[in-house]
Amino acid sequence: MTASTIKSRPIxxxxxxxxxxxxxxxxxxxAGTTAVSELFSRADIAFAERTTIILAxxxxxxxSKALTRELAPAAIEMQPTLADGxxxxxxxxxxxxxxxxxxxxxxxxLIGLVVQAGIDFSIDHLSIRTEHRGSLKRRVQxxxxxxxxxxxxxxxxxxxxxxxxxxxxDHYSRRLAAFQGVCIDAEVPGDIPAAEALYQ
Amino acid sequence: MSGNSLRRVRVAEVEAVANxxxxxxxxxxxNAPLSEFSGGSHIxxxxxxxxxxxxxxxxxxxxxxxxxxxQISVLNVEPSRGGSKFMHESVKVGSELEIGQPLNxxxxxxxxxxxxxxxxxxxxxxxxxxxxxxxxxxxxxELHYGVRSLKDGAYCKYxxxxxxxxxxxxxxxxxQLIPLKTVLRGQLLGTHMYVCxxxxxxxxxxxxxxxxxxxxxxxxSEQFSAPPPGKPFVVKLARSGREIVVSGHQSILExxxxxxxxxxxxxxxxxxxxxxxxxxxxxxxxxxxxxxLTEPEKAEGKKIMICMSRIQSASITLDL
Lengths: 200, 320
Description:
The complex is a heterodimer. Chain A is an alpha/beta fold. Chain A has five helices and ten strands, in the order E-H-H-E-H-E-H-E-H-E-E-E-E-E-E. Chain A has helices at residues 32-41, 45-49, 61-71, 82-95, 108-120; strands spanning 23-28, 51-56, 75-79, 100-106, 129-132, 138-142, 148-152, 157-158, 165-173, 178-183. Chain A has a five-stranded parallel beta sheet, sandwiched between helices. A five-stranded mixed beta sheet of chain A has the order 7-6-10-9-8. In chain A, helix 4 packs parallel to helix 5. Chain A is elongated, with a radius of gyration of 18 Å. Chain B is globular and about 60 Å long. Chain B folds into three domains: 6-103, Elongation Factor Tu (Ef-tu), domain 3 (Beta Barrel); 114-222, Rossmann fold; 233-318, Roll (Ubiquitin-like (UB roll)). The longest helix of chain B has 13 residues, at 199-211. By secondary structure, chain B is of the alpha/beta class. At the A-B interface, loops of A face loops of B.
């Protein structure tokens, strides 16, 4: 993650435990589990005991079992996709009381969607603790047709909905959980630089 | 520049509302409408108490929609630096005062699902304007108000009759304490807590919320304390070369104002950071009484909040 001059570009300070929280919800992907292990190593066992982990990733049986052991005694819920994980998070937030602390660890799309869900339930984005792990892929919104392009790894990228070639900017919307993509050849149509794999 | 222009007002009403607490209603000197404000705002009132010039901040407690007058409540504190004593003894109906524009350093969180107000004594005042504003928006709130007794606590009856079961009064004379743990436990996500009152009460409420796992973003507090007194000292102003004596019961800011120096300020309570001033040299220890500078900044001694802090030595040179 490189420093940006764009103020809306999110920064992820890393996970630190809030030892006072009555309950913790952590949403992570496979790469993010390492950050969760490190978080647990910085807290007592009771911290993990009052934690629910939503692990949203496609995992093999062996991986699932290994990670369940690794992250015990936290309660782990496996969700096959990020969308399923976020749907489950929203379900938990429906009834969550104050004193619950939300964490997110993994790719930027995962963190962004967790923060978006948190905001929808009136959690201040600054009180969600986040750590980026794994791929640099981005979730991008085409500012022209408003379509979303998931898992973007190149810049520019073609909008899957309207076909516009988009410059992926660091401009970020917390509400939409997406970076903004703008037409790259608006001034000189057809003047399109080669795509670079910037967000692998 | 202070950037906060003054306005002349006339005292239209004075009412003793509780032991040692008076309510003042202020109207524009020409009966022009006053500026609108938002719940949680305060004004500073300029006082010429004897030879001394003071500006004390008071929360606006009337309805924010009412621009015909401002209402403040003043507790006669003992011992007083002179401000509250001046308000209680010298200000009558018809008296003229100068006030600053309303400023809000204690607004309710607009996106909160629910607001829990925790007040101690005179700390009720900002919540009165907030509740008026939130009630009109049909927002969810509850008040937990600790008073020494019904004679000492202002507006108990008014608040209970207007807001019913949303108002909870706790009387110290009956041994009742705010059951804050119970109040906070199990509140729905998106609830915000606000506390205003004496410093020990604020510290207790903030600590209670923290220990229950409430994020800092959901807890808010405001306290107006007078600048603590100390020994007199000299402030040297590097840019103008002037030397100004700060007396024992005066803040640096008050001494500057008394000598016609226009220094920056907003809250006058060490909270907002507006009066942060660079220290060029100091021959001793700075007593940082603000809650704006970080601990490392305080230890470094390169900055001072002139509304609240002073020094324990002979002189300090400021970049003013």
